[in-house]
Predict the 3D structure of the following.
Amino acid sequence: MYTIADIYNIAIQIERNGEAEYRQAAQQTTDAEMKKLYLDMARQEAEHAVWFTRLLEKTPDRQINEDELDELGAELLQNIIKEARFPIDGKGLDEIDNMQEALMFSIALEEDTITFYQFLSDLLEDKEAQQDIEQIIREEKRHIEKLREVSAQWQQ
């Protein structure tokens, strides 16, 4: 059985993994624009980890039964736990050497993160927590819009 706390801990780990990967990529790139993008994305991931940590601290340890997980997509949850970093085309972020690929990686990461948070929201009975998750989803969507705008500028 999983608890809501387990789910939040997974979300925290996903955010920390994303932050670490973006910071590593920022250290390895020589492109100033890519470095700026990576550091900004790392900062956002760190903010989300802090947010989930705060949410975890005020969360009761409610059990989630296996049938409930099956209905809501246990396979998705297991894949997220297993991967917890969302590579694009088998490449890690540190293997990307141009801005367009870096932007596409970041967009894919944000989209996969939204999918997880939508899944997480469906597990929650607490309306306030659901609203908080929806706020994070809206923020992730804004990140995607910003990344797509930057991508369009780089294509010109």
